[in-house]
Amino acid sequence: MISLFLTIEENNQFVRMEQITEEIQKHQTKMELRDIFNQLQIATSVRPQKLKYYLNIISKFKDILKENFDSDDLVTIFSNRPLVRYLYHLNLIDNDALMDFCQLSKTNYFALYDLIDHQKFDRQKCRIYDEVDINDEGYIPDNHDELCLSGQCPDPVATIIQEDNLDEFQNLLDNNKIKINDKINSSIYDCIFTFEIRHSLIEYAARTGSVNIFKYLWLQNNLKLDYMLGSYATMGGNSEIIHIIHEENPSFIDESSIITAIEFHRNSVFEYFMNSCQPDYIDKIHNKLASVCIKTYNIEAYKMLKASYLDIRHHIDLFISAASVGFYNRVKKFLNYDNFDPNKISSKFGTNALIKAATENQYDIVTTLIESGKVNEMITNIMNQNAFIAAVNRNNYKIIKFLASLPTYQEYIRKDKIFVYDK
Fold first, then answer.
1. Which of 235, 258, 375, 418 could form a disulfide with 369 if both were Cys (CB 3.0 to 4.6 A apart)?
2. What's the whole-model pTM score?
3. Segment 300-312, tens digit of pLDDT
4. Which CATH number fits domain 152-250: 1.10.340.30, 3.30.420.10, 1.25.40.20, 3.60.150.10?
């Protein structure tokens, strides 16, 4: 399903929308739909330039979202600021959920500042409030909403780089309006890079796959290069840029860059990295790579690994990774495997799937695991915490109430001592 989201373009958007509609019609349960919308969130994160298409998808299926998910569900599924804003405009999430989302980071707070009910917003509980300094009257520009929903940096230099307009770029350099080591102004509207860090022109070109501007900058004297350039090139996915960097610095292909290729669904790059590494190197990290594949719904990369490393099929880390992100179909597959123990504690995570799901607020996965009858509800992790304590530590109220209702927890919990909030 995620491939349909990743490959949507101007010239195929209507065909892709029909295909997406067909897939959604095949999957009617809440858990299956959640899998699909989890994949849409990932697509939005790794292909922010296609945001307008993803907003159209949300608009088309707003009734399905409303019927199956409440506000808390939606801000758990969609962690992208423009998507959350758009969902709010569609009346699919309420102000309470919006305020919870704003407390996760100061970038969220800045970007959604105009939508918050400030009389209700508890500044004392906002862990990022002391980091922000906003002029309430002068902060919001007139086109703030439009900029937020664009997902693009409003800096005109960033736009020129994204469009890979070399003539315009050279014109700026020739007229001394920019210099080769200048940095792009950071912006809360930019979903390509994080708000807190300013990035160089060549980093922006690498991240957006703008090969013509990248090659031009690469040939300039006195160009300052950061060690993260290879990572940004991997995110951008342009093979020519990656080959240029690889020739200059063969060591840039390491575990981190391979993981980045998986996370950003740059699977041709991932295959190139795999073929460029010694087999024994991949052998040491293949289970870790497989876990990343599961967490990011990158089944294509997972299949490449499984073709060479058949033992990953039953690896406990993959099961826990699937549970942590709400990958329902993959969790169900693991539960159906013969001789597979879903209670096993992973040495990597220090916990099991149930506790990890409770920690990450994956309510539907928690219920699926327990209703399977194969999971020990009271098992503890290496910190001697069970799923209930994990949920309490993260204030995951819905999971707390569900676990507190189970007979196995009645002896564990003194009802007169537990206080479960109704949100």
1. 375
2. 0.83
3. 998 888 877 656 5
4. 1.25.40.20
